[in-house]
Task: inverse folding
């Protein structure tokens, strides 16, 4: 079973992490890298500019 964050479309193997990602995405309008790095499709999503922008935003918030 794969769980997807409906906001950023990252996919997770456990529902709990997917929910945390989705909550974060809805509240912060970006991805939490600590959550996103657990996504099973992150390599694929990083190639897509929309998600890439989100990851870039994270770097700037440090
Ligand atoms: Zn997300």
Result:
């Amino acid at each position: 079973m794969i769980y997807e964050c409906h906001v950023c479309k990252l996919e997770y193997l456990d529902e709990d992490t997917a929910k945390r990602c989705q909550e974060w995405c809805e509240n912060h309008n970006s991805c939490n890298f600590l959550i996103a790095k657990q996504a099973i499709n992150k390599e694929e999503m990083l190639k897509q500019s929309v998600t890439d922008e989100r990851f870039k935003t994270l770097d700037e918030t440090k």
